[in-house]
Amino acid sequence: MKKIVWYLLLCMTLSSCTLSKDASVELEKHASLQVEVSNKAYGKALVSLWNTLYPEQKDAIHIVSPDNCFHQQFYHDIEWVNDCDALSKRTYALAFDITSAYDVPSSLKRTSLEDYFQPIEGKGMLFVYAQPMLDTYSIKEDEISDFMNYRNPHMYYYNHYADQILPLWLSHYDPDSGVSMEDIFMEDAFLDCIQQMKDFYHEHQLEDDPYHATNFFTQGYFSGLLPSQEIKKQPYYASQQLHIKPMPSLDEQGYSPYADTYGFMVNKDCPYPNCAKAFMNMVRSKAGIQAYLDHNDGVVLLQKEDISDFHIYDALNKEMIQAMNGSRLWSMGAIKEKPSIHYKDLYLKTNIVSILQNGIVANKSAKTIQKEIHAYSKAWCLHQ
To answer: What are the boundaries of the signal sequence (predicted)?
Structure first.
């Protein structure tokens, strides 16, 4: 009950400024919108917010649960999708000038979706460390942000899976769209990334441990990457002894984990487009973002300077939001001869990570590893 009262007071304060752009747009009467949301509690909060802001269109929002299966066409008026799927659905989506009271971190914006997609949440790997182990490994808090200070193999957890290797390997690689299979992964920049990965692996004496992917702290590791949705399950989290930061840098070069963003997209055949636009603007108003924060365990997309505008009681949740600012989107550049294949497919659906890992362990030259990855990727694309 207290939350509902709080929302009503907040909405009355914000309705004149946050959503003022919609005041000049006549919303359709007797509208009825089916809206997918990430969970029912969040959906109920958005319905309450809508009814407060738009009493003449009260009860226009009808919440449905997402089916968690990708479908290119729309089944509902407004759907909850991730940014990669949104690219595929764009043909069937309504385009309009989406406004946002709070901007999304620039590294997590897809400019090709700016008129179609309203991102709310980020999911991906985040860098975490255990504060009780600072003394064990003789590292100070102001040294954590530089990998040069990681002198013990147990200071950074590493395994042979893509979600652990890719941020270290490809943070400085941004392939162009429309590359030919003849040229795939043959750029000098890609070769440089292989050499840097080799150097990092051997200089830091990384252990290739595939068994403790989500509980590596219990095995004595000081830090590593964890899926954002797993962080709150860690034993150090409840005692506030686990901390989340952007990935450390090395030689002044930053590293960026990959992330998916999730949010809303409107069916172009929606019979109530003005109401749909008002809803899309509402969800990134101050009250809309607060509704997400109050009813989700995920990481909301906010620039770090805007975090103080919101009621966030969990200090580590604030750390996750700030750390997500250092993440990057998956490359969705397409292969020229096979436009349905994207770089993300090559990273996650093929064996190129294994080729890299085996080459590094065998101490092959970076050029040899590059040629092997190129030949394998070209053959894989041809057979799809």
So the answer is: 1-23
